[in-house]
Design goal:
275 residues, alpha/beta, Rossmann fold, six-stranded mixed β-sheet, four-stranded antiparallel β-sheet, 10 helices, globular
Length: 275
């Protein structure tokens, strides 16, 4: 599935939140959206998955204008895994996953054998076989988010939108969710706050700052120390392993002070040695 966004703007009152964003997502591509908090990442994704409507510009799914599609039609094309919250659904895990079949149903149509097969298959994919009868609200945050991912998979859409789905999860569950999504081979657009995770999983990145796209490229092309400093106002070093995988190491102020102190001591020792 292909997504095209052209000059997308979004206003809240007179305040311009998105300032003409362009995006092209190719079939089977894993595209990451990065940027500081409040930059417009989630607002832009909400325009794509129709929680918010762009004030100006257009979004197209496979060449079809989004506002010309019914909500059911767009749900058949795109599924969403949003930022994690601790949900209190009083449903079983299987009930929650079966909700993903709603776009395929007529009013009051009951779930059938194929729906149950797809739901069980999705739970197997996310590693939750045997959780079907568990109460959703009793699960851990990571387990809940995997159930929400299973619901999205059961929806049978070609494209997944991930709106910072690992934001409040510990590193184990962050990697689990991203590993599962990467293994599917779907078209994916994801807002990602962790740059190392973005570098590990994304084919291409766009950077948003102040509601504008300020950079685009592969992780290796875009994530340079200078660009990260410009985007987030933090210092860092980029290291590469033998397999050329990136590792971004942030440099806090106290490290810089320690380095400066060590350099001054070394300089003083050298000077004393020459005297």
């Amino acid at each position: 599935m292909e997504i095209l966004a052209e000059a997308v703007k979004y206003f809240i009152g007179k305040k311009e939140i998105l300032k003409g964003i362009d995006l092209h997502l190719s079939p089977k591509e894993f595209l990451g959206i990065i940027g500081p908090n409040g930059s417009g990442k989630s607002t832009f994704l909400k325009c794509i998955y129709r929680v918010q409507k762009p004030t100006e510009g257009k979004i197209l799914f496979d060449g079809k204008a989004l506002d010309e599609l019914s909500y059911r039609q767009s749900a058949l094309m795109l599924a969403v895994v949003a930022q994690h919250n601790y949900y209190n659904f009083d449903f079983s895990v299987l009930d929650v996953v079966l909700m993903g079949r709603s776009p395929h149903k007529k009013m009051m149509e009951r779930d059938n054998e194929e729906d149950y097969r797809l739901a069980h298959e999705a739970l197997d994919i996310v590693g939750l076989h045997g959780f079907e009868e568990r109460n959703f609200s009793t699960l851990s945050g990571g387990e809940q988010q995997r159930v929400i991912l299973a619901r999205a998979l059961t929806q049978g859409s070609e494209c997944l939108v991930l709106d910072e789905p690992t934001n409040h999860l510990d590193i184990k569950y962050q990697l689990q969710i991203m590993d599962i999504v990467k293994s599917l081979g779907h078209t994916v657009v994801a807002a990602v706050h962790d740059l190392n995770i973005a570098a590990m999983y994304c084919d291409r990145l766009i950077a948003i700052q102040g509601g504008k796209v300020v950079g685009a490229g592969t992780p290796k092309e875009l994530l340079t120390p200078d660009f990260i400093k410009k985007l987030y106002d933090v210092d860092c070093e980029i290291h590469y392993g033998e397999d050329e995988r990136m590792n971004i190491v942030y440099i806090p102020q106290h490290w810089k002070k320690q380095r400066m102190r060590a350099m001054m001591i070394q300089a003083a020792i050298k000077k004393a040695g020459r005297q």
